[in-house]
Amino acid sequence: MSKDHIPATPAVRVLRENRVDFVPRPYKYEERGGTEVAARELGVDEHLTVKTLVMEDDGKSPFIVLMHGDREVSTKDLARILGVKTVQPCDPPSANRHTGYLVGGTSPFGTRKSLPVYVEETILSLPVIYINAGRKGLLVEMKPADLAKVLKLTPVSVAR
């Protein structure tokens, strides 16, 4: 599949506008399959797949966390770093409202609202990542350094 034949999602448009070198990686999506299914379908290490998590603090302020597919976010550590009492995942309707994407197809690129983006710092040292391109069943393969070309990132260490 060439770049010309992939869906022109807001994420794909942002990547093209910023001249990010990426390879579309469509796969057979399974509801609630997450990065485990994506990695299996693409034949890649789940650690290289990156989840885009829409979360909010105790004041209901939304933000994005980019995390390895095979790791979880320590919400306690993240709350401490952010200087808030608690953080939690947004419910799907709120995540959709904040990003413009359906849960399962959420990309950090081209979100409806400009949201703060926190990235697990070890993602930035990977040789390549696979991250959602704004549609269920569509990831893009790209260099992690290109995340910073498009997004204002804050590296954090909150994986568990």
Structure overview:
There is one protein chain. This protein is of the alpha/beta class and 160 residues long. It has one domain: YbaK protein. Helix content is 24%, strand content 28%. It contains 5 helices and 8 strands, in the order H-E-H-E-E-H-E-H-E-E-E-H-E. The protein has helices at residues 10-17, 34-42, 75-82, 92-99, 145-150; strands at 22-26, 49-57, 62-68, 87-89, 117-120, 129-135, 138-142, 153-156. Strands 1, 2, 3, 4, 5, 6, 7 and 8 form an 8-stranded mixed β-sheet that branches. Strand 2 (49-57) and strand 3 (62-68) form a beta hairpin. 34% of the residues are buried.
Summary tags:
8 strands, YbaK protein, alpha/beta, 160 residues
SSE arrangement:
Blueprint lengths: L9 H8 L4 E5 L7 H9 L6 E9 L4 E7 L6 H8 L4 E3 L2 H8 L17 E4 L8 E7 L2 E5 L2 H6 L2 E4 L4
Parallel strand pairs: 2-6, 3-5, 5-8
Antiparallel strand pairs: 1-7, 2-3, 2-4, 6-7
